[in-house]
Design a protein that fits this description.
alpha+beta; 32% helix
Length: 119
C-alpha cells in the first residue's frame, strides 16, 4: 500500500534515486513516486520542500554541476532567481528528495532516506 505520508521525487535514470526507492520499499514503505522531470514541482512546492529540509536556500536542492545551470548563468543567482529556475528547469533539482510529514531529506547517499523512517 502506498504511504500517503511519504513522497519521493524520483528520476528512474538516476542510480541514487533508484537506490533510495529500493531502500524505502525494502523497509516496508511504498511511497508516492513523483517523476519530477515529468511533473515539475511548482515554486510553492519547492519552497515547501526547502522548509521541510530545514533551510530556505534553494542551493540545497540545486544541481550546480548541470550544464543547464551554467547555460542559465546561475552561479551568482539569488534565491528568488534560483527558485524560478528550478521550477522552470526541473533537471536542476537534486535527486532524490524524500518527504515524510514535515521532514525531508536529499537522498545522497541513498541511505539518508532511512533517517526519515526513524523519527
Amino acid at each position: 500500500m502506498t504511504e500517503p505520508n511519504v513522497t519521493i521525487w524520483h528520476n528512474p535514470r538516476c542510480s541514487k534515486s533508484r537506490g533510495a526507492l529500493a531502500l524505502l520499499t525494502e523497509n516496508g514503505v511504498d511511497p508516492q513516486v513523483v517523476r519530477y522531470l515529468d511533473e515539475a514541482p511548482s515554486r510553492d512546492e519547492l519552497v515547501s520542500v526547502l522548509r521541510r529540509l530545514g533551510t530556505d536556500d534553494p542551493r540545497a536542492i540545486t544541481r550546480t554541476g548541470e550544464a543547464r545551470f551554467r547555460e542559465l548563468g546561475l552561479a551568482d543567482a539569488g534565491p528568488e532567481q534560483l527558485l524560478d529556475a528550478l521550477a522552470a528547469n526541473p533537471v536542476l533539482i537534486e535527486r532524490p528528495i524524500v518527504q515524510a510529514g514535515d521532514r525531508a531529506v536529499v537522498g545522497r547517499p541513498p541511505e539518508r532516506v532511512l533517517d526519515l523512517l526513524n523519527p
